[in-house]
């Protein structure tokens, strides 16, 4: 085990208050944050070594992270884990949502493994339009796609889970199915192989029928 003298290797302080344990962790600038876990998870959390706070752009907040460095023959391997995956006994890249929005609160009651295959939620805008809520991989609402009411059953069903994709030049609304990636506008308009779907107002998140037309490629 190698030791790096910085905020990632400074020993944590643990304070247990009944069923909850507070952990003092450091940010890169040396300032302290307090993270929270269930006391019943204290042993396995401590066994991982030192925990620190690191900014994560997807969460727009600090996550409680750990780095374990091991040496196998002449190869040095660095493995990063987040505390929520340790608490829930999942892979570190598993999509986990903090229910109350506090990423430092890693009690099991505040953690939820995100089901990335569930149907999208939606809102009624008016008699003709719904807004499909697009979430990121952590279950956080990211954008909304407009759809005509008559296409509700076509796009909201067990087959599709729609997500926001930044795309190359502009955002798109996509779903991943066994056959590959599909676009919401294609599911609605069914273009032929010689056609593509054009968004009349140039907004790819507006998939109302009146904003879509099939055009030759």
Following the backbone from N to C, one meets helices and strands in this order, namely EEEHEEEHEEEEEHEEEHEEE
Provide the structure class: mainly beta
Distance between the termini: 58 Å
Strand tally, please? 17
- Average of pLDDT: 91
Q: Write out the strand line-up for the largest beta sheet, numbering strands in chain order.
A: 9-10-11-16
Structure annotation, total helices: 4
Q: What number of structural domains do the residues give? A: 2
Shape: elongated
Q: What are the low-pLDDT stretches, counting only 5+ consecutive residues below 50? A: none
Largest sheet geometry? 4 strands, mixed
**Rg, Cα atoms, Å:** 23 Å
What percent of the residues sit in helical stretches (DSSP H or I)? under 10%
- Strand residue content: 35-45%
InterPro entries: His-Me_finger_sf, HNH_nuc
Pfam families: HNH_3 (PF13392)
Protein name: HNH nuclease domain-containing protein
Domain HNH nuclease: 95-119
Task: Give a verbal description of the structure.
This protein has 217 residues and is mainly beta. The chain has two domains: 13-113, no CATH class; 122-216, no CATH class. Helices cover 10% and strands 43% of the residues. It contains four helices and 17 strands. The chain has helices at 42-47, 83-87, 152-155, 184-189; strands spanning 13-17, 20-26, 32-38, 51-56, 61-72, 75-82, 96-98, 111-113, 122-124, 129-135, 141-148, 163-165, 172-177, 180-183, 195-199, 206-207, 212-216. It has a four-stranded mixed beta sheet with strand order 9-10-11-16. A three-stranded antiparallel beta sheet has the order 1-2-3, with no helix packed on it. A hairpin with a 5-residue loop joins strand 2 and strand 3. It is elongated. The termini are far apart.
